[in-house]
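Example record

The entry below shows one chain as it appears in the dataset: sequence first, then structure tokens.
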Amino acid sequence: MRRLLAICAMVGSLPMVASAADLTARISLQLPLKSHLGQNLLMFKEEVEASSNGSIAVEIYDSAQLYKDKEVPAAVGSGAIEMGVASLTRYVGDIPAVDVFYMPFLLNSEEKVRKAVEPGSPIRAPIDEAIEGTGSTVLWWQAYGGAIMLSNGEPIKTPTDMEGKKARVFGKTLGDFVTATGGAPTLISGSEQYLAYQRGTVDIGMTGVSGVKSRKLWEVMDTITVTNHADIEFIVVVNTDWWNGLTEEQREIMTTAARNAEIDVRDRVAQIEADAFAAAKDNGMVVYEPTAEEIDAWKAKAQPVYDAYKETAGDLGVSLLDAAAGL
């Protein structure tokens, strides 16, 4: 009952939608609505409802009210909900190759990332196609930025600082990276990481800096190490059967809004990260930038991660690595 009341309260707080809507699309999001991914969904919602003259209503259920991040692929693929936002790595169980974005220091510049995520690229296109096999269609990709490490007391400068520590991760390959550097990975959903840090379930956190801001993680962690060892991508997926059942006009309206939303968040992610770092500092966090020698020490430990990826991701994974290397 409490969960139902919470959902009802959230629906009441969302922007009003036209009562004459012929179609309603519900979207599940694990992050708060104030996060940049939440604001990106609001942009999509406003454009869709305006372009359709209110005949399409979009409802956003944020903060994991309906589904946690790890539950979104199955919920959307089964048709339990029309749309959802999930970290790309949540598809690693069905498609191990998606973790090419989490290979340590592979896609380590904005230029490389932009080329990799461009629609139709030799990296994105095969991933989008593979996800269709899970019952979902990728509507757009949401940039989240580079992966950082969180700690208390002192930065995580080198793999030596990771040894014997428990670290929160949000994907298998990131867990392999922690293991390779001497730590013990613990898979924890984004919506649960605040409590994990607060309770000391883990010693080290791994996330994007925008999440530090939207979740106020400075209340439970005091240091950021800017490793940027992986590129974090979220995808907005829609149930394929539901999508195919729409009219051509409805799909066109939503596709256009999705592409506009994708371009907007990609173009703003650098500033979003800069603002989040500034907010972290304003709230007392120490932000540490590793030296080139320290980054080299991390890279030297990463080879087992690449070996494991090639073994589990198969031919698709190898082709994605080759494509990434050619960027």
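Notes for this example: Confidence is low (pLDDT under 50) at residues 1-19. The first strand starts at residue 23 and ends at 28.
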